[in-house]
Amino acid sequence: MRQIGLATMLLAGTALSALAEDLPVRSVTLSSGGLAQIERSGEVAAGGSVTFRAPTTDIDDLLRSLVVADPAGTVEGVRLPARDLAEEAFRGLPLRPADFESRAALLNALRGQEATATGATGRIADAQETQQGLRVTLITPRGLVTALLREGEEVQLTDAGLAARVARAAEALAAARTADERRVEIGLRADRARNVAVLYVTGAPLWKPSWRLLVPAPGSTQTQARLQGWAVVENASGSDWERIRLALVSGEAAAFHQPLYEPIRVPRIEMPVRVPDAVRVQADTGTRPPPPPPPPAPAPMAAPTVQGGVAERQRALGGAPPGFAAAQQDRADPSAPALPIQAAATAGRVAFALGEPVTIRAGETANVPFLDARLPADRVWWIQDLSARNPLSAIRIRNSLPTALPDGLVTVFGAEGNEAGAFLGDAEIRTVAQGDTRILAFARDRDVQFTTASSSTDRIARIGARRGFVIVDIARTEEVAIAIDPRGGRGPIIVDVPRRQGATPRFPVVAEGDFGLRAEATLAAEPATMRLPFERAVRQEVPLWDAGLGDLVLLRWREFDIEQNQRRLPGGPGTLERLQEILGRTAQDVPGRADLAATVEALEGVRRLLDELRTRIRVWRVTEAALGRARQAVEDRTGQELAEARRRLNAASRESEQAAAVADQAWENWLRAVQALLTRGG
Q: How far apart are CA 305 and CA 568, in angstroms?
């Protein structure tokens, strides 16, 4: 019967692990998307396997992306411990991790198992530590046997399968003490030694670029700035990077995570035991209304004006101690990176490859240069906030490199003059594509001041008409005026203003973006004014009468109080005066002005007829009052006085009828003029 010693089985895992050496890291590519492409390579003997350790958090990515390059072998597969080592290793065993605290506890946990100790074979009944050694009690067919184990003596399990499982549990327990990493073994089959490479992609701390920018002085003839890129790199792979090839990639590749290393059990539908259905009644909640039905499916541009003199007055920069400028000039020219750099761009991706090997120990953070270039640049003032008092000091750069520049923080230094080597401020740079321009603001210039004012003016652009309305098209100019005092400074000033919904800028827009609209002018040492006009089309409709009155032809002047409603009638007060005011503001060359003048003239005629109508109606009302008094007199008189009263009644009746006829004629005249006026509008 095969027997395995307890000491041997506990050491088995350690002996097996020592048979293979980890494959070293040769190349690392870090991505701005938080990924690392790791390449391991080395010589593998015939019949050997590839082993290395990886953080547990990287196993999912490793399983999904692993690529093996073996020129002379066959890949058999990848093996690694289970996700939950202890749970899987102890499943079905009469042991728990706590039983490995001592040899006595381990043997007591194996009570009832057959074992051999000091030549005696039986089932384990008890184990105790004594001063003389480990005393083990075995149950044999003849009774109890006590064996005293001294240094170097073994207890051997008879069941070889159980012994092997206990050994695996011990190995799993040892591995579980370092649960943050796993040993990965790639099985290979080959008949000779050869170089094998393993490539995989895992999550990693993203590399963080930062920039150093040396800028020319204000008003300098220098047209370039020096840009140096440095990258903060962290080795969280769990393995040392010894003289590796390091590449830094900036891009936005799609990246996913899938829990391949996590045991996943598919839930199944549980079929219930069939029982009679309960009787269910839905309570009546009353009626509700039905649901609603679904719903049915520029002019020539003028340059921004800059007003002001051209006299020059140099800005005072203050004195400097002797030798200061020379010393600062040396500091303003930093050394080039020790590592040569190669940059390569593909669609949406830029890779910076360091030309010499890099060493970064596991858990270390390094800061390495990855770019050193000179870019076209000029110093500018920049106004982002029109409510501010001072503009921003900024540098405008253009990416003349064949690759894009990734996001990062820029530390700005002066490169010449009194600014040589001086820290000027910090700025943020967002991704700059090849050929693009960026403005980087690093400070506020307290010497230069500006004030803004807004105004709005209307210009009548066209006059039109439709039945009952005069249409006035207005070109409204909304202008932002910026008064700037550069205190003797010279150079470009850039202004960002928000877009205006429905308005068209009437100044040259040099750029558009999230910032809105961008304009630019050049300051020439003295106070100046920069004007940024917008033009908006506004339409006004002026009614000739109140359409709420209905059809005027259907009105009867005897049943309608004209005095109370004269403002609602064509020719009434208000409308004519407004149209006269519009006509006075309309230039002679405006399309439709002649029609407006004719409409005003016609409306003046309607006004005269309306005034005549009102006069005739007032006369009729006077005669009507006299007629009423005459009727009353007839009722109150007798005899000869009655005859006189009847005569006066007849005369009053004739006068009332005549006044009514005149008023009717005035009403007809007014209506004809109104209809002619409305016909002009189509």
A: 48
Question: What's this model's pTM, rounded to 2 decimal places?
Answer: 0.67
Dig out the tokens for 83 from the structure: 């996700």
Report how far residue 504's alpha carbon sits from residue 494's, in angstroms, rounded to the nearest whole number.
Answer: 19
Q: What is the pLDDT of residue 11?
A: 37
525-580 residue pLDDT tens? 899 999 999 999 999 999 988 888 888 878 888 888 888 888 888 888 888 999 99
Tokens of 482: 């910026």
DSSP-derived letter for residue 336 is P
> How would DSSP label each residue in 426-486?
EEEE--B-TT-EEEEEEEE-SS-EEEEEEEEEEEEEEEEEETTEEEEEEEEEEEEEEEEE-
- Alpha-carbon Rg of the chain, whole angstroms? 49
pLDDT over 80 (residue 643): yes
User: Reduced to 3 states, what is the DSSP secondary structure of residue 254?
Assistant: coil
CA-to-CA distance for 127 and 111, rounded, in angstroms? 9
Predicted confidence at residue 19, as pLDDT, reads 41
Per residue in 461-482, pLDDT tens?
Answer: 999 988 889 999 999 999 999 9
Place of tokens 């050929």: 435
Residues 360 and 370: their CA atoms lie apart, in Å, by: 16
Mapped onto helix, strand or coil, the DSSP state of residue 521 is strand
The predicted-structure confidence for 238-282, as pLDDT tens digits, reads as follows 889 999 999 998 877 788 888 887 878 888 888 888 777 665 555
Rounded to whole angstroms, what are the CA distances from 351 to 30, 250, 402, 429, 462?
Answer: 9, 6, 12, 18, 59
> Is the model's pLDDT at 372 over the cut of 80?
yes
d(Cα 505, Cα 503) in Å, to the nearest integer? 7
Dist. CA 468–CA 472, nearest whole Å: 13
H/E stretch holding 374 reads strand 365-383
Q: Please tell me the distance from the alpha carbon of residue 633 to that of residue 650, in angstroms, as a whole number.
A: 12
Ordered strands of the 50-55 beta sheet: 50-55, 181-189, 74-79
